[in-house]
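Exercise 7b. C-alpha cells:
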C-alpha cells in the first residue's frame, strides 16, 4: 500500500529546494581528470536534477533557491524555464557569489568521481527571508536535499521551508545527498541531517549516507531495517535505502518492506543514478502507484540516466520511462 496522502487542488505537485549548479561532464571517458581536456556543460545539482526529472515526467514543478548574478546563473534559470519549471522562488544573489561547478571524472563506468568547486557559492546564500510561505502552501510536496544544510543562511532557509511544509500539510521528501566536501565537521553534519530528517515524511538515501548519520549516535549495526525504524517515531512513513547496482529497499511505518531490483543497462557513468531514481520514484508515489511499482520506476529512470552523458538533460519523459520498463531487462537482486 502507498502510505502517503497528498493534498488535492494545489497548483504545484513538487517544489525542490537547494542547490542550483553546473555539471561539467568529461567528454573523454575512461581516463582520469589529469588527462581529461574537454567537458560538456549541463545544469546540475542534485535537487535541480530531481526537479528536471519531475518536470519531464509531467509533474508541475517549482524551485526555491539562489543563483549567481552572471551568465552561469542565467544559464540555469533559462534551462529550468525551458523545462517548464516554475522559477518564481529562485532569487538572484547580489553579493558577488558564484555558481558551484561539478567536474566529473569518468575513469570507467564503475569508477567515477566528482571534483567540486564550491567556494562562495550562491546556492548556500539563500536566506530564510527569501522563502515564501504562500509559495510552499501551493504545492503538494516539497523536496529537500542535505547539501543545502551545510552552511548558514541556506541551512535556516531549509528549516523554515520545512516548518511551512509541515504547517500546510505539504508532504516532505528528503534526499540525503551527502557531499562530504561541502561539510567541514562530521558531528555538525550528522546533527543537522538528523534534525532535518525528523521533520520529513519520506527519507531516501544510500547505505553510506545513513551510516554517516548513525555514526555520531554510536549505532554500529549498518542494518537497513533498524535504520528505517528509527525514523518512524518521528514523521516518516517511508524510508528508502539505496544500494547502487544491488538495488534498493523501502520500509513503511506499518511494517511492510519492499525490495527493488535494477534494469540492466550499458553504464556510461554512475552519477545521476540517485537523482533520476528519486524523481521517478516520487512521480510514481504521487500518481498513486504502489511502493514497489514506484521503486521500479525509479530504477528504470536511473538505468536510462546512467547510460547517458548528462544527469539533468538525460532525464526521461513519461513515455520514454514506460517504454524502457517494457523493453529493458529487469533483474531482481
Ligand atoms: N550499475 C547499475 N545498473 C543499473 N542500475 C543501477 C546501477 N547503479 C545504480 N542503479 C540504480 O540507481 C539507483 C540509485 O543508485 P545509488 O548508486 O544507490 O544512488 P546514488 O547515485 O544516490 O549513490 C539504484 O537503486 C538502482 O536502481
Ligand atoms: O549534485 C551535484 O552538484 C552534482 C550533480 O549534478 C551530479 O550530476 C551528480 O553527482 C548526481 O548525483 P547522484 O544522482 O547522487 O549520483
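Sequence design result:
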Amino acid at each position: 500500500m502507498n502510505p502517503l496522502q497528498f493534498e488535492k487542488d494545489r497548483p504545484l505537485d513538487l517544489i525542490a529546494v537547494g542547490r542550483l549548479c553546473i555539471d561539467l561532464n568529461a567528454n573523454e571517458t575512461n581516463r582520469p581528470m589529469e588527462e581529461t581536456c574537454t567537458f560538456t556543460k549541463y545544469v546540475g545539482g542534485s535537487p535541480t536534477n530531481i526537479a528536471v526529472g519531475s518536470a519531464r515526467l509531467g509533474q508541475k514543478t517549482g524551485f526555491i533557491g539562489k543563483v549567481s548574478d552572471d551568465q552561469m546563473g542565467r544559464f540555469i534559470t533559462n534551462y529550468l524555464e525551458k523545462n517548464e519549471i516554475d522559477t518564481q522562488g529562485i532569487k538572484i544573489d547580489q553579493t558577488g557569489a558564484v555558481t558551484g561547478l561539478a567536474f566529473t571524472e569518468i575513469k570507467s563506468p564503475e569508477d567515477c568521481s566528482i571534483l567540486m568547486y564550491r567556494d562562495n557559492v550562491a546556492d548556500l546564500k539563500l536566506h530564510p527571508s527569501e522563502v515564501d510561505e504562500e509559495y510552499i502552501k501551493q504545492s503538494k510536496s516539497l523536496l529537500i536535499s542535505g547539501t543545502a544544510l551545510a552552511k548558514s543562511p541556506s541551512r535556516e532557509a531549509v528549516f523554515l521551508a520545512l516548518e511551512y511544509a509541515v504547517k500546510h500539510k505539504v508532504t516532505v521528501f528528503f534526499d540525503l545527498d551527502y557531499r562530504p566536501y561541502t561539510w567541514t565537521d562530521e558531528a555538525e553534519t550528522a546533527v543537522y541531517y538528523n534534525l532535518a530528517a525528523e521533520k520529513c515524511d519520506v527519507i531516501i538515501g544510500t547505505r553510506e549516507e545513513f551510516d554517516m548519520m548513525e555514526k555520531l549516535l554510536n549505532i554500529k549495526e549498518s542494518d537497513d531495517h533498524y535504520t528505517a525504524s528509527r525514523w518512524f517515531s518521528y514523521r516518516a512513513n517511508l524510508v528508502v535505502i539505496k544500494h547502487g547496482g544491488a538495488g534498493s529497499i523501502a520500509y513503511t511505518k506499518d511494517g511492510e518492506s519492499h525490495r527493488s531490483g535494477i534494469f540492466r543497462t550499458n553504464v556510461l557513468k554512475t552519477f545521476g543514478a540517485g537523482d533520476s531514481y528519486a524523481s521517478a520514484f516520487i512521480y510514481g508515489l504521487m500518481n498513486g502507484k504502489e511502493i514497489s511499482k514506484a521503486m521500479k520506476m525509479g530504477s528504470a529512470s536511473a538505468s536510462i540516466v546512467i547510460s547517458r552523458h548528462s544527469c539533468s538533460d538525460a532525464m526521461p519523459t513519461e513515455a520514454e520511462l514506460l517504454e524502457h520498463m517494457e523493453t529493458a531487462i529487469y533483474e531482481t537482486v
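Instructor comment: The two ends are 22 Å apart (CA to CA). The longest strand covers residues 101-108.
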